[in-house]
Amino acid sequence: MLTAVGASAAVATAILGSAYVMGSEARPVTAEGAATGVTALQARWESVASQTPTYLDTDQLETLRSGGWYCPELESLGFTLQSAEGITVAGRPTLEIVLENDGDTVTVYEQRKVSGVRGADAPPLNAVTGNIVTADGFEHIGGAERDVWVRSGEPWQVVLDSPSVTYTVVSNLPAAAMPQTLSQLVTAEHAQLALSPQVQEDSMMERIIRGLSMIAHPGENG
After folding, report:
1. 125: domain range?
2. Would you call 141 exposed, middle or buried from its count of C-beta atoms within 10 A (0-12, 13-18, 19+)?
3. Which domain of life is it from (predicted)?
4. How many domains is the chain partitioned into structurally?
5. Which of 56, 122, 165, 183 has a Cα at 20 to 30 A from 11?
6. What would the pLDDT profile of 5-31 be if each residue is shown by its tens digit?
7. CA 160-188-21 angle, 5° bins
8. Does 198 have pLDDT greater than 50?
């Protein structure tokens, strides 16, 4: 009986945990909240990279994070920060982070959408070249919350595009490591997002209720 109760409790905890995450990601963003977020992104960028290119230290990365930039470092995969640089690509503020692990490297270009929203049907940019991905030979893999574009080869390149951020990821890791690398990148983004004051405005219960609604009625939340 105790085992059954324990199992039921574990299942309930897992469901509530999933609902909390889903509810956090689905939180409605008001026009005022979006404007505040964009202002913070711009302000933090200007405070550390008003002139580009410029190398950034760990304190400056924390300054960017405090304004909503994600600055992923993939520590759970054993990577350490090799360098960070603020650059401009096709007129867009771009954070370039180079990570290293025993000779393997992952370079992440983070472009936050702080200067207007790209057209819904327009392909994203490849931050390595400044070209749209279709011009650089990327293949569209698809995706739900974000579009995924892949260019195979050595090194491989992937562009992840969502309404708020575009990542260009370049790595000399084996292609088989690509899914785990990208998954951890998104996990790091969600962890940072959970610390955002805009997310914390919701109570835990509000997020759980919204998440449970999405689980119970998946077709009504597209």
Report:
1. 50-196
2. exposed
3. Bacteria
4. 1
5. 183
6. 444 444 444 444 544 444 444 444 444
7. 95
8. no
